[in-house]
């Protein structure tokens, strides 16, 4: 049952379920192969994998916020930002998240949290300084759309499973070396396990990238329909993308690891291959969709 006023997206829901199923299946197969190969190391692999998963699920939002330099602010400290969040939450019938600001000149915003009760929405100082109030509302509505659609938690878990493949591989290799230097199978394991891990990571990486691009389009659409001003969101997109291009590349590279969380990517895709690996659809595709929504609202 839809418990808020953000436009539901069945396509996004289907993609999230399929992505989680495929990555979960991939992860189970990967762990199963390691357990079959390294029989003596299975307790260590299972314990470490379980602890990492629990830690990621419960603390991923705090880790992401800390890594991006976000600090929570009160309504007295940031009245304009809190006012925008209050209006969007009232429009969308959504519980108000914690509000934070990140000290960065890179104009961007993001939302983190495994559910609606512990969500944080954050805007950078660079974004607040550059956007008009209606443009900021469009950006915040976009970020809260991720919360309403629950894709923030799905992306956090999905991306973590791919990373875990690499961690478990290191554990397995360490165990393989420790088993016995005289074991004739050790040399084969040293070659085989990294290859399996690379395949697991590559597949999970592509699956999460495809989901990430679709969820950005879904959030754009939900935000535009909720506020009724797709032109404001389009203006914010254009302004943010243009301003990001003027930021020194060194600063952008520091933000690039968090692209999947951001409203707009720190570094945009150029070639066709890089677009396939991008966390966001192209600016042209996003603006095209918003123009379609404008025509749709005009017809209504």
From TrEMBL:
Gene3D superfamilies: Metalloproteases ('zincins'), catalytic domain
Location (main, coarse): membrane
Mode of membrane association: Multi-pass membrane protein
Principal EC category: hydrolase
Compartments it resides in: Cell membrane
One Gene Ontology molecular-function label: zinc ion binding
Catalytic residues (positions): 143
Enzyme Commission no: 3.4.24.-
GO biological process: proteolysis
InterPro entries, per the entry: HtpX_protease, Pept_M48_protease_HtpX, Peptidase_M48
Sequence ranges assigned to domain Peptidase M48 in this UniProt record: 75-293
UniProt superkingdom: Bacteria
Residues reported in the UniProt entry to bind Zn(2+): 142, 146, 216
Keyword Ligase in record: no
Any one cellular-component term (Gene Ontology): plasma membrane
Cofactor(s) required, per the database record: Zn(2+)
Listed transmembrane segments: 12-35, 41-59, 152-173, 185-207
Alphabetically ordered keywords of this record: Cell membrane, Hydrolase, Membrane, Metal-binding, Metalloprotease, Protease, Stress response, Transmembrane, Transmembrane helix, Zinc
Cofactor annotation comment: Binds 1 zinc ion per subunit.
Family statement: Belongs to the peptidase M48B family.
Name the record gives this protein: Protease HtpX homolog
Source organism of this protein record: Actinacidiphila yanglinensis
Species classification: Bacteria, Bacillati, Actinomycetota, Actinomycetes, Kitasatosporales
